[in-house]
Amino acid sequence: MLLEHPHVITLGRNGHAGNLLASAEVLSRAGVAFHPTDRGGDITYHGPGQLVGYPIVDLREWKRDVGAYVRGVEQAIIDTLADYGISAGRIPKLTGVWVDDRKIAAIGVHISRWWTSHGFALNVSTDLSFFQYIVPCGLSKARDLDGRAWRPSRLARGWANPGHAFRPRFRLRDGRIDP
Q: Hey, where are the domains in the chain?
C-alpha cells in the first residue's frame, strides 16, 4: 500500500520521547499531529511530498529474519532509486537509505506472526523544515534529503507499481512467497 500522509510525527515502540523537540502546542500550531505506533524505529515525520509504503508480506516461507527483511526493503528502495539515476546506499549500523551522508528513506516495520506491516518513507519532494520538531530516527547528526533534484514526479510514478522492486527480492506473488 502506497500513500502520502498529512503532517504527522510518529514515535516507534522503542522510540525516545526526548527526540520530540516540540510541545503539543507548537505541533498543533504547525498543523502536525503526533501518534505513537507499534512499528520499530524511533521518531520520524511523514507529510506531503513523502511516499510512504506499507508492504504487507507473509514471511513464513521466506527468511524468518527481521534484519534480513529490513535489509531487503532497503535494497528494493536502493534498486528503484538507481533506476532513476540516484546513487543511494546504506551506512553501516544505521537503518535506512542514504545518498552520501543524507537520509532519503526511513524504515520502520512491525512483524507479527511473520506478517509485515508499516514500512518505509521516501522523501521525494518533502518540506524538510518539519524535521525541525524532532531528532529524526534518534540520530542527532543525520540530515534528511528530499529528491526534488531528481524529478520527483517521475520518481513517484515509478513507485506507483512497486512490485518490480519487491517481488524479485522476496519472491512474492499476491503478498505470499512464490514457492
A: 2-177
- The catalytic site residues sit at 137
41 class by beta-carbon count within 10 Å (0-12 exposed, 13-18 middle, 19+ buried): buried
Fold (topology level) of 2-177: BirA Bifunctional Protein; domain 2 (3.30.930)
Q: Which three cell numbers stand for residue 52?
A: 510512504
Instruction: Give DSSP secondary structure letters for 57-109.
Output: -B-TTS---HHHHHHHHHHHHHHHHHHTT---B--TT--SEEETTEEEEEEEE
Residue 51, amino acid = L
- The residue whose grid cell reads 513464513 is 60
Element (H, E) at 50: strand 50-53
pTM of the full predicted structure?
Answer: 0.84
pLDDT tens sequence across 65-107: 999 999 999 998 998 888 878 899 999 999 999 998 888 999 9
